[in-house]
Amino acid sequence: MKNIFFKIITVFIIMITTFQSTYADSFGNVGVNFDWLYLSKEEKESRVTDVFNKMFPKGYVTNFPRGMLKTKLKNYLKDKDYKIHYDAVCAGYKLYNGISLEPFYLGKSDNVYMYAAKFNNEPLKTFYYDALGRLRFVDFTYGGYPQYPFYIKKYAINGKLIRAMYMKDEDTMYIYSNKGAFIGVKFKDTVYGFNFTK
Description:
By secondary structure, the chain is α+β, with helices and mostly antiparallel strands. Helix content is 28%, strand content 30%.
């Protein structure tokens, strides 16, 4: 009898240990401030709606009228120093002559096909240039930046919204499509949808 009881307890302990290990792998790495995985479907839907309403107070996605963005950003349509900036970003510089730079690589190669530049005189805009210095996209930042939360809307140069991102904190970003549809919550390097992960 003692032997059977001992085996049952052993199996139970193994099951608990396995569950805790799986639980820790799935949930333990998300951090204290990230609660998305613990919310009910209704709570998730409510949060998604609240974030949407903060970014789109009129209740719908707005685009710039055709040609307006090109006119508004005429001084930034071409990076006059693109050769210097492109070389700097390829060399690994994140900051060059007071301009913040970020490379975008083609696939898994070392080839930079685009770079982002943030100029001191436009701290709420990030400009995305191709390798020849032509403006392709621009981010507009709204809210309490650099304090969290704030949100970013990425537009193509033709004025169409590409994506909207609500930055809750340094690690957590709510992502919406060009139509305002919820894509997911990015926490560090993982994107979570309404189900477990996306």
